[in-house]
UniProtKB/TrEMBL annotation:
Localization of this protein: Cell membrane
Keywords noted in UniProt: Cell membrane, Glycosyltransferase, Membrane, Transferase, Transmembrane, Transmembrane helix
Transmembrane segments: 12-30, 81-107, 119-136, 142-160, 172-200, 212-234
Keyword Cytoplasm: no
Organism (species): marine metagenome
Entries under InterPro entries matching the protein: ArnT-like_N (IPR003342), LipidA_mod_glycosyltrf_83 (IPR050297)
Domain ArnT-like N-terminal residue range list: 26-199
Main location: membrane
One MF annotation (Gene Ontology) recorded for this entry: mannosyltransferase activity
Protein's UniProt name: ArnT-like N-terminal domain-containing protein
Keyword Aminoacyl-tRNA synthetase attached: no
C-alpha cells in the first residue's frame, strides 16, 4: 500500500491525465465571463467570424474589407469552425488557443519522455508550462501565438521521430506548412531548424534523404499556397501589404530612433497582464 501511491504518481498514464486535466481547467476556466480583453484578440476574432462569409476561404477580411493581408487564414478557419459549434462568443474565440495549449503540454511531455526515458523529467518539463507566464496567458487569449507554437512543437516532435521512422518526415513537413499558414514566414523556422539539425546529426546524407526532402517540399507547397492564391487574386497589392509592412520587419525602426527606452514597455505590459487570475 505504501508503494502504491509513489507508483501511481510516477505512472505515465496518471501524469498525462493530470497534465491534460489541469491544463484544460486552467486554459478554459472562467472564460465564459471574461470576454476578449485585448485589441488583437478582438481583431482576430472578427476575422474568424467573417472567414466563411468572404468571397474566398483564402481571403481573411476584417469588417468586410479585404485590404488587410497581415495574417494567413488557417487560425481563422479553425476558430470559424468552433463558431459553428458554439456560436460566436468570447469563449469560442479562445477555444482553439486553449486546446492547442493543452496539446503543446502533452507534446512536451511526449517529446521529453522519448528523449530522456524518464517520467518525472517529462512531467516537470510539461508542468512548468502551467505556471503563470507568457504561455499560460497566451493560451487564454484569442491570439495566433499558441496555434503557431503547437505546429512548431508538433513539427519538431515529428522530426525527432523521423530519425527512427522516416514516415514521420511527411507529417513534419505538413506541420511546418500549417505553421506558415498560421503566421506566415515565422512558420518556416521548423524547416530551417530541421535542415541544420539533420546536417549536424548525420551530415549531408541525412539532408538528401528522400523522405526528408519530401517533407520539406510538402511544407513549402502547403505553406506557400496562401501566398500563391492571394498573389494571383490581388497581385502586387498583396505583396506590398503583406511583405512590406511594419509587422514583417525583423528589426523595428524604433531600434534606430532616439527613443530606445521603448523596450521597457514590454516589462510594463508583463507586470500588467501576466498574472494567474
Amino acid at each position: 500500500m505504501k508503494n502504491s501511491l509513489p507508483g501511481m504518481l510516477s505512472s505515465k498514464i496518471f501524469q498525462i491525465l493530470f497534465l491534460v486535466y489541469s491544463s484544460l481547467l486552467i486554459f478554459l476556466g472562467r472564460q465564459l465571463d471574461r470576454g476578449i480583453t485585448n485589441f488583437d484578440g478582438a481583431y482576430y476574432a472578427i476575422k474568424a467570424r467573417e472567414i466563411f462569409s468572404s468571397d474566398s476561404l483564402w481571403v481573411a477580411t476584417w469588417m468586410g474589407t479585404t485590404r488587410f493581408f497581415d495574417n494567413p487564414p488557417l487560425p481563422f478557419w479553425l476558430t470559424g469552425l468552433v463558431y459553428k459549434v458554439f456560436g460566436v462568443s468570447g469563449y469560442a474565440a479562445v477555444f482553439s488557443s486553449a486546446i492547442f495549449g493543452v496539446l503543446i503540454v502533452y507534446l512536451t511531455y511526449s517529446l521529453c519522455n522519448y528523449l530522456y526515458k524518464d517520467n518525472w523529467t517529462s512531467f516537470l518539463a510539461a508542468f512548468v508550462l502551467l505556471f503563470p507566464g507568457l504561455f499560460l496567458d497566451s493560451s487564454r487569449r484569442a491570439m495566433l501565438d499558441i496555434t503557431l507554437a503547437f505546429f512548431v512543437t508538433a513539427s519538431m516532435y515529428c522530426l525527432i521521430k523521423g530519425l527512427e521512422n522516416r514516415k514521420f518526415y511527411l507529417l513534419y513537413g505538413l506541420m511546418a506548412g500549417c505553421a506558415v499558414l498560421t503566421k506566415s514566414v515565422l512558420g518556416f523556422f521548423p524547416i530551417v531548424i530541421g535542415v541544420v539539425f539533420m546536417f549536424w546529426y548525420g551530415g549531408l546524407k541525412n539532408i538528401i534523404d528522400f523522405r526528408f526532402l519530401a517533407g520539406v517540399a510538402l511544407s513549402i507547397i502547403v505553406g506557400c499556397s496562401w501566398y500563391l492564391v492571394n498573389w494571383l487574386m490581388f497581385g502586387d497589392l498583396f505583396i506590398d501589404r503583406h511583405f512590406k509592412t511594419s509587422h514583417m520587419q525583423l528589426i523595428p525602426n524604433k531600434i534606430f530612433s532616439n527613443d530606445t527606452l521603448y523596450i521597457f514597455g514590454y516589462l510594463k505590459d508583463m507586470l500588467r497582464n501576466y498574472w494567474p487570475w
